[in-house]
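Mods, move this if it's the wrong board.
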Amino acid sequence: MKSLGLSEYVLDANAFYLGLSFLSFTKSYTTSLVFAEVRHLKGSYSLLETLVETDNLRIVDPDEKYVNAVYGVTIKSGDSIKLSKADISVLALACQLNKTLISDDFAVENAARLLGISIMPLGTKGIKYTRKWISFCRTCGMGYGSYLKDCLICGNKLKRIFKRVAPF
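Not the wrong board. Structure tokens:
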């Protein structure tokens, strides 16, 4: 696990699964959708409530304009089909608050990089390249955006591949 400074962070669900929120004394943010995802953590609900009560964890939902901006970018990049509403919300919150996002989810990290959000993976090395996903039909050769699963021409399953956008 990487060392964290005294900055404030936006936490994705896997930061809670790794126990970061329980080990950190920094103020953190998350969304109500992420909080609802992690409430089931065995034996830690009271710890989560304590973090909220002591203002070390703030539950904030992003403004709709940031959610829409994130959707727009993730649709263009092809990440939208891999991201949950909670993922979208935490990306939008990090964008709105201009805070570093902590996540080990590769699709979240890819979207964050495209949005210009600073991201810190904890349990992984993170992604090496920003990617744009596309789909193509191996049978007839038609190319599509990544949002389709079946070819509109021949009906076969599409193969999803990525194109490197840029190293960072």
